[in-house]
Design a protein that fits this description.
This protein is mainly β. 3% of the residues lie in helices and 45% in strands. The chain contains one helix and eleven strands. Strands 2, 4, 5, 6, 9, 10 and 11 form a seven-stranded mixed β-sheet that branches. Strands 1-3-8-7 form a four-stranded antiparallel β-sheet, with no helix packed on it. The chain is globular, with a radius of gyration of 14 Å. The termini are far apart.
Amino acid sequence: QKRLVESGGGLVQPGGSLTLSCLAFGLDMDYVAIGWFRQAPGKEREAVSCIGNSATSTYYADSVKGRFTISRDNAKSTVYLQMNSLKPDDTAVYYCAADNIYRPGTYYTWPTYDMPQSDFGTWGQGTQVTVSS
């Protein structure tokens, strides 16, 4: 059974750092891209970052570029999201999700790619990140 489990959320002060983990079960990590999304209270869920199966293809939303880094360890079936210089606006529930199908790495680096949620079919339960002093 395909399943994703997020961990690593918590309370952090502005300017602080957190690393989220997404552990996958029942997925062939050599062929699956994993994305991170977030949903703040009263707002729609939005894309944050995505990493292709080879780890050389990555996507970042403009709001997190230069502050967040996505990486993966296929041997551990885990994808990480390192979040630095956190801001109160980063407060949200963070979800990881697996792409529905295998796609070449260039798909995730195409200039018009914006990480549509419809691409992702397996979702975790989410982990809360709160940035507050």
